């Protein structure tokens, strides 16, 4: 075992959801040690949060943190950015400039212009940029990707992806909801950015196909909401055709992500409701239920098949991959990067443009 | 019990699939007796098929049949039309003109023009016109419709409907496939007509909303196929938004019909994979699994809950309703009629037009 | 097509559940025509019920019916006996004596002594005796039986079967419940006879193994109930071991029948909740979902795979097999007969004896 | 946040399964820090393993470790014992004697006599003894326990629990299997001890009822196997009746744990296949799908509902509870302790005795 990678965090103060997830994910496989943070822009809250986590060093400003940590021999090697979307670009720039690897929550930025700026910077930097598209960390999603890449599906024809929630079905309330429906913080996109980018990434990640053009119909169902809360999108992905549904207002669907891919020779289905399974069907043969740890499985497994892994483990996989990237200097092929982040923001921008143009097909 | 209604059949000779289904459906609840048929346009096959079924009277021409049966005191009271799509209009006209009730398979016709002609004729006729949109016969689909109509969902926001098959994933072979991919027999639409009309009807039937406009992307994936075999459609239904996916080329999906509806206050999910269940979720409450024959169920049940009913029973429900319609003179509200057939063909035509216009929103 | 077999019915007057099921099952595949009945021991109710069904001939006494029908040239060829358990033996004897085939509901009799008497009579008779163990009519149950018989599972080790309901969880009320909890009508067994015989038959039918000995723990949970309403049984089946749970008092389980069989080389799972599927797993390979009408399926299918068949269709399969038996003179191997009925009553008697002996292993 | 609890480990060297699980579980909620270990009885392997984990202190003998750590100011406060069953007692005694809290894998010991000895010692010690019955850490298992305790089920009648695997269906091979089928290491019980104790604990834990007597049929199906690999058990739990099936030889069941409980007023079903759900049915009402994080949920959640937690999280819950116990001095009511371990070994011994007595009811 290599020594643990020293990790910092921007955002993720007390009460934050995704910051706590990043910390559990970083801890699970024991490749990181959280030692510093700028956990809140409110100095007092930053300090209290840092103390509660037992952090060695607490900052109230991420710029100070980047400079100070870069100057220390025992400074952080990587930073997790877990602020709202509009606060991704600035810290990412600061840490990349300081030569510190960045693990950034999604969507990558609030706007496409920010994404383009960040992409240029990240590509010019020696530090790695990693984007936490969680679903890319699920073992059976990776297994699906491997199966598609092996050619077992033949030429892909159809991609259908859904990401459906209900927690924003009423005028939002609470810390998690507030910033997500405020364009100043979330960016122009609502559901299309918050979960639509996950769905779009999943479709691309498994199919191996780009999303070339979209025809989108975005809607804000809740009165007074300034961003979309439901998105219907038709996709063209090379010669394949697809559909994407992202909704945060459909009662009964807490967090249902599902993907179906049909090729000339075989088809695949994965659902977040049973993440440890993959239904794989060759034309003319019975459907097979492939499982993590089961026959033919080639991926990573912390515990044997039948002992369910879930969301935190998927997230932890991204952190383990990030540790590999940082240690080896090479980005693993399965790990989302800045290009995925740019693709995501192009998708958001194209969907918004298409929807404003009454659903006209719009290139990414 | 009233005496059984005397039934005739056009089409449905030996080897036909849907004709046999109509006969089982007509028999199940014992409201009909099949006594006459023009089972094939090939006189010999018509005769052989009629003998095999023990029919009292066999015809080789449906026009002759309509005239002869109308003239008999013991002539048929209703006729089932189970020919390929392009052969629906002519027999329907003949029997309606003879005052004989028509039970017609879907889609109603091969073209919208035919549908309009038939609608005018049917509306002017004293005879009933019934369209066998099978899914409207499933008890839990009707329960879903009742729940929506009760207002339990509040204002509907989102409708998502899929009908996915794989049996036409390769160049078609066999009697069932051949006519479905031949525009001369199926009409302009392929999957969009054959199963897309089912999906569209299901969406309208349960939601109670019209499909006003569509943006469609139709595709023929199989080389040389003259009709679409995959259809992606975005829907506008009043203030609601929807998506529809109809595919006959997605491996692993034998015949999966599913419907999800989200309203302001509650949501519903139904799947043909478990047709006896309905998932119903009021916002902020646990999902409930409503079942046929279970608590609060108000529909029809031949056997107690837990003893699964399926496709034939759903089809039989339409025949029982038809028997009610014929006996009472009043169309039951839950029974698809000529207007549903016209709506279906308008949907097909609009989808084709939209797809040709590169997905432009097209009114029905 | 052969002419329809003329069928009579004993029991099944208005309000009866299982009589109506037998009639639908007999009708579905169009092999029978119901022409006569002694539908109730109450002459007036018998007559009213017969008229409602449009029967040609109604009797108030099954002995009269057996004699009269046997004497007619157009008399019934087979009779369905759908009375409560204690009223199976007498009519079965009467019709067998008259040379009329008997299709009898389960359990075969109220007591083992009656079962032994009936078995001797049936075996000596030229008329067929058919027992409607419904689950033996499900296509995927038969597929499971075929797979086991093919040797694909290797030597069988474990058989686990459940039949769980909740409708008798409270002191019974209503026509269906009343006779089932009255030992004078149901016989000594309650749940163990009413549904336990189904479960035991299913275990034997698919595994191909006899139930040799049982260790049983029967219970009457509802106050004042004179028969068991929950049964736990350990089974020895040749070298295999099994468990059987039959319950009519477990809330949330409407009518859940499930079977799991493990052999040296492969395992099978079937559940009545998804009757069209069979999970089949060879050791070291992914589970396969086998389906009616799907790849490798060798059974009977009225409608294509993906169009669900259910309980009535399974029941109808027994009637179609009965029609084959009557027409050909040979009992199909898949059709439950008098020996199955005797096995069932031996199972009930052994379970009751074992339970009274505090669970001592008791041979059948 | 309190400082992390200093943790040691006995067993769990390289290649061990459950040791790695304990470490992930201890890490996830950041309440422990692993600082010392006697990871193997082979000194070299102990040292290599400790170095790979970055442990501060490595021992080759657990007695030395207990003494040395107790003597240090910064010595471990708790120890995880993750050796094979026969090596639980001795280290547990050593650490309890040293005043160090013990977190012990299950089953508690190899024999009942050992369990009784350990119970006496643990009850006399000020140090805590915690047993890692993992399933007691699943949020929806705890929710089930809470619901039963609330009286919502009324008086419990039936408890049905299964734990079914297939990984020992052939003569065992590999490190994990070898010791489990060696009575010198596993103890007298095979499947009944390894997974039967989990199932028995789950039944008791949720129902709140003791297992008073058992009637068991144990079997060793694999040739030459010295311990049972399949166990069928009937249970008497107060006035309730139950069944338990533990199998390690049933193909197709990787690690399926399921529990069904029926009371007078309501029933519950939980399955490890979908651990985040609980089916709850009040008699006469629709089944409800209760979920972690969903309406009415009162338990602990690291991530929102719909983001699946699994096995590691359940295990981590036991560690978090252990941290609470250690910090506060009070054992949380939901945390398995030495009495649970003793109950488990009494269950194993009673099952073996019953099976040897041909299934005679045997008190625990």
TrEMBL record, chains A, B, C, D:
Keywords: Oxidoreductase
UniProt xrefs under InterPro entries: Gfo/Idh/MocA-like_OxRdtase_N, Gfo/Idh/MocA_oxidoreduct, GFO_IDH_MocA-like_dom, NAD(P)-bd_dom_sf
Positions of the Gfo/Idh/MocA-like oxidoreductase N-terminal domain: 5-131
GO molecular function, one term: glucose-fructose oxidoreductase activity
EC number of this enzyme: 1.1.99.28
GFO/IDH/MocA-like oxidoreductase domain span: 141-268
Oxidoreductase listed as a keyword: yes
Name of the protein this chain belongs to: Glucose--fructose oxidoreductase
Species lineage: Bacteria, Pseudomonadati, Pseudomonadota, Alphaproteobacteria, Rhodobacterales
Gene that encodes the chain: gfo_1
């Amino acid at each position: 075992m290599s020594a643990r990678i020293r990790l910092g965090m921007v955002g993720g103060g007390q009460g934050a959801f995704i910051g706590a997830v990043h910390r559990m994910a970083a801890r699970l496989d024991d490749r990181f040690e959280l030692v510093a943070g700028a956990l809140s822009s409110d100095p007092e809250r930053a300090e209290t949060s840092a103390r509660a986590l037992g952090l060695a060093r607490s900052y109230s400003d991420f710029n100070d943190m980047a400079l100070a940590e870069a100057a220390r021999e025992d400074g952080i090697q990587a930073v997790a950015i877990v602020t709202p979307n509009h606060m991704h670009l600035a810290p990412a720039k600061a840490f990349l400039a300081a030569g510190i690897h960045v693990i950034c929550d999604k969507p990558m930025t609030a706007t496409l212009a920010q994404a383009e700026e960040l992409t240029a910077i990240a590509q010019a930097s020696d530090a790695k940029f990693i984007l936490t598209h969680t679903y890319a960390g699920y073992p059976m999603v990776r297994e699906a990707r491997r199966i598609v890449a092996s050619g077992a599906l033949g030429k892909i024809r159809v991609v259908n992806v859904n990401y459906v929630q209900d927690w924003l079905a009423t005028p939002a309330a609470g810390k998690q909801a507030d910033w997500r429906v405020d364009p100043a913080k979330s960016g122009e996109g609502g559901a299309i950015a918050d979960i639509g980018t996950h769905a779009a990434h999943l479709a691309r990640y498994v199919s191996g196909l780009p999303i070339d053009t979209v025809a989108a119909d975005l809607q804000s169902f809740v009165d007074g909401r300034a961003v979309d809360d439901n998105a219907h999108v038709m996709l063209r992905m090379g010669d394949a055709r697809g559909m994407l549904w992202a909704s945060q207002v459909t009662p009964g669907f807490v967090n249902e992500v599902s993907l179906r891919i049909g090729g000339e020779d075989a088809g695949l289905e994965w659902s977040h409701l049973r993440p440890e399974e993959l239904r794989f069907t060759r034309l003319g043969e019975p459907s097979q239920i492939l499982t993590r740890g089961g026959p033919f499985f080639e991926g990573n497994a912390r515990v044997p098949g039948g002992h369910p892994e879930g969301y935190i483990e998927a997230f932890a996989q991204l952190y383990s991959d990030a540790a590999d990237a940082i240690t080896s200097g090479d980005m693993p092929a399965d790990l989302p990067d800045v290009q995925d982040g740019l693709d995501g923001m192009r998708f958001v921008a194209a969907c918004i443009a298409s929807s404003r143009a009454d659903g006209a097909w719009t290139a990414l």
